[in-house]
Amino acid sequence: xxxxxxxxxxxxxxLAKLRAEANPERAKHQQVYMKSExxxxxxxxxxxxxxxxxxxxxxxxQNSDAWxxxxxxxxREATHREERYVAIELFLNKKFAHxxxxxxxxxxxxLVVTGAWWDYVDALATRGAGTMLVNESVQTKxxxxxxxxxxxIWKRRVAILAQLKSKTNTDVELLSKCIKPSIGHSEFFLRxxxxxxxxxxxxxxxxxxxxxxxxxxxxxxxxxxxxxxxLARV
Length: 234
Known about the structure:
Elements: H1 2-20, H2 24-33, H3 45-58, H4 64-76, H5 81-92, H6 105-115, H7 118-135, H8 137-147, H9 153-161, H10 172-179, H11 188-202, H12 206-215, H13 221-227
């Protein structure tokens, strides 16, 4: 019962702020740009991030159950895209990063599968799955290996991008195994994701990326071009 009261209060506060700052003209442009069926209120993502921080500061969850419940209520009951942006920021807030463990992978999966677009998925991959890898690598790796072969392209993209910010801590075996199942896939977001992941890692280990690209001539032109973008300037 306590969780229900808490989560409803969080949602009511978030909705009040979003509605108070709504910008209908901007909202129209946002919806067109993002090709979204769900409408916008007209707020920026940074403002949604600040709203999430404000709520966690004023109403901090007492435990991980209350935290997850508030996130899922916001997400599932959302009528506008910003509600889901706030839900993601609640989920990925650094203050509660210790709660991002493999037990929360079903939550991550729900947000990824039902969100099914890059503006949701990329943050969930890099800051969600990426943090879970740091907190509990063994179990998270097992899941990412499965996601890399999943029929759902967004789960594949999460697996590919999970280590985007890992730099010298990148597990190249994991990176390679998460990329390979999608090399021949025609989906733009997978090809772009592969190139992005390789491009970022090229800043840390350019030789590894060069070798990977050379060993995989079946990489799409898009993936190859993105992977070598920084290396071409050297």
